[in-house]
Write a structure and sequence with these properties.
Layout (H helix, E strand, L loop, with lengths): L9 E8 L12 H7 L9 E7 L5 E6 L2 H12 L13 E6 L41 H13 L1 H5 L19 H13 L7 E5 L5 E7 L2 E6 L4 E5 L7 E3 L5 H11 L6
Antiparallel strand pairs: 1-2, 2-3, 3-4, 5-6, 6-7, 7-8, 8-9
Length: 261
């Protein structure tokens, strides 16, 4: 997205912010991510366009044209060009800074830097900055779950033998049982949108992603689950199917949000 003059924005990337697809590193669910950005959670969601102005300063444009951003992301993922230029009428807000870390910059511009903005009622909102992922915590835990969902086959191959079953009434399993009980609670009291998400997987399966206070779960409806805990830095704990997990995953899939077709 480029325009003439000093108001030009040179687009580097864009991401969706919807109940079914949002940057997990920013929060456990869709409303939480919206709050982190100072936005109200709209059912149709937003698109976030990250770029630099003529001076190299970082800006995030929030657009209501979710379809356009989705088309751009899909084209870029396929290695195709797409000129993402949101119509000014669709721009909801322009926020200083970036909420996500980027390793790229616009050619021919000064290095990316935060703009100098005023705060308070007459100024812009505080400058956005990516969450700290240099140490284990909620942001790093959610990134780990993202990686497992993206590289399922690779992670699954490491636990072909010795995967543990966690059943009701069995012995405690270092926080995993607590997580499974909290996840079952979602069936009785549905959580905020985005706490449970369902995405396409090979065959007739779905990839499930669930998050809660201090934990993340990644699973396939036809296979096992992986649990990550804030209290267990860097550990990834597999949970075998046993007799209960298949039914639990199927029930979660039935209430999960899904990306638009």
């Amino acid at each position: 997205m480029t325009t003439d003059g000093e108001d030009s924005l040179y687009v580097l990337t864009a991401v969706l912010l919807t109940p079914a697809q949002f940057p997990s590193v920013l929060g456990d669910d869709y409303p939480a991510v919206c709050r982190a950005l100072g936005l109200g959670p709209r059912s149709e969601g937003y698109g976030l366009v990250l770029g630099q102005d003529h001076s190299g300063a970082r800006w995030t444009v929030v657009t209501g044209d979710v379809t356009q951003v989705a088309c751009a992301v899909a084209a870029w993922d396929c290695g195709m060009e797409y000129d993402l230029s949101p119509d000014e009428r669709t721009v909801v807000q322009v926020l200083p800074g970036w909420p996500l870390a980027l390793a790229v910059s616009a050619p021919g511009l000064p290095a990316p830097h935060d703009p100098v903005v005023g705060e308070g009622p007459n100024g812009l909102p505080p400058v956005l900055s990516p969450p700290d992922t240099s140490r284990w915590g909620p942001a790093q835990r959610r990134l780990g779950a993202d990686e497992i969902a993206l590289q399922w086959a690779q992670w699954r191959a490491q636990v072909e033998e010795g995967v543990e079953f966690v059943e009701s009434g069995g012995r405690p399993d270092s926080g995993v049982r607590r997580v499974l009980e909290e996840i079952r609670g979602y069936l009785d009291a549905p959580p905020p949108p985005g706490r449970i998400r369902s995405a396409f997987a090979s065959g007739n399966a779905r990839t499930l992603r669930a998050d809660g206070p201090g934990w993340s779960v990644v699973a396939r409806t036809d296979d096992i689950a992986f649990v990550l805990l804030d209290e267990a830095p860097g550990e990834i704990r597999p949970v075998g199917r046993g007799s209960e997990l298949p039914g639990l995953l199927a029930a979660l899939d039935s209430i999960a949000v899904r990306p638009a077709a």
